[in-house]
C-alpha cells in the first residue's frame, strides 16, 4: 500500500500489517498464539513469535482499506466471544493508529484450544 504526501511516497508492505496484527492479537487475554494449518499433515501448529505472520491474511480493498483474517489458538476455559471481540477491537485500533489505514473488517478464526 502506498501513501502520497507533499514530502514523498511511503510504501507499506503486507508483512508490516501482518506482524502488527499478529502482535496485537497475541497480546490479548486468552490467546495462546497464532495458528498455522499444515498442508502435509492437516494439523494445526502454534507459531513462534518470529513466524506469526503466517497466521494472518491481509486483503487490500479498492477504497484503500484492508481486511484482516487471523487464525489463533486460545487457552482452555476462556469466553470465546469475549476474546474474539477483544482481538477485533485491539487489532483494528493498533493498525489504524500506527499506519492510518482504515481496517474494514477483522475476522478471527479459532483453530484450536490448548488444554
TrEMBL record:
<dbReference type="Pfam" id="PF03780">
    <property type="entry name" value="Asp23"/>
</dbReference>
<comment type="similarity">
    <text>Belongs to the asp23 family.</text>
</comment>
<protein>
    <submittedName>
        <fullName>Asp23/Gls24 family envelope stress response protein</fullName>
    </submittedName>
</protein>
<dbReference type="InterPro" id="IPR005531">
    <property type="entry name" value="Asp23"/>
</dbReference>
